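step: validate -> pass
step: tokenize input -> pass
step: predict -> running
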Amino acid sequence: MSRGTQNTVVLLVGLSAVVMVIKGTYLHFVKPSLLPWLLAAAAVLIALAVASIVRDLRHAPAEDHGHTHRPWLVWLLLVPIALTTFVVPPPLGAQGTAPETLAATEPARRAFPPLPGGRAPTVPIPDVVMRAAADSTNSLDGRLITITGFTLRYPDSTDLGRVVIVCCAADAQLARNIAVQWGARGVRANAISPGVIATEFAAPITGDADAAAARLLKTPLGRFGTPAEVAGAVVWLASPAGAFVTGQNIVIDGGTLISD
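step: predict -> pass
step: emit ->
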């Protein structure tokens, strides 16, 4: 490869980086925080290429080495440079999700049972959310309802904030989504995933000797949890001490998850 070709390729690589920055397509290759480094690298490449080209034009070095070249092969190096500059690949991560994928995740619409009679029937928040998203009969349209749930009290208002999901994984994902979407407004959302807690709900496990022994064998602390231990995490998250915690799934299981 001749010196002139080398310098031209280096110059084009630097210019392609500048073009990607101007068009914004550099975000498909690197994180936004790397923009200064990308600009610095492009400036260095362009400066080195221009300096080499100017020096070669002034001194005109001899290129006769007693053999012939195939310059067209060398110029094939321009193909990947052109592709990188002008062909924009899909972005990596969640931004590259196709609209069809999002539509496929929407809940299937179905007919829900009619709402209770009366002027303003009581409807829990989970039922309202599901009816709004998937009720093909649109039973909420034009109806006055009373929504029930836990309350979040603020100095100037009181908001409902109760969503019940049995699946811990879905609950944790919901907390992450809410944390991202509402974090700018000061809203925090966290999930708590308890293990086997000594309550009436867990009686089929804690009250069965074989089931209890099998579960405790996989629990490093060797015992079941208590409601107070779960309540302690709730108090921490709701207190000023947890003011910088959001989008997290707090597992309270005595270590079962890491050994199960």
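step: describe -> The beta strands are 122-124, 146-148, 151-153, 158-160, 191-194, 249-252.
step: cleanup -> pass
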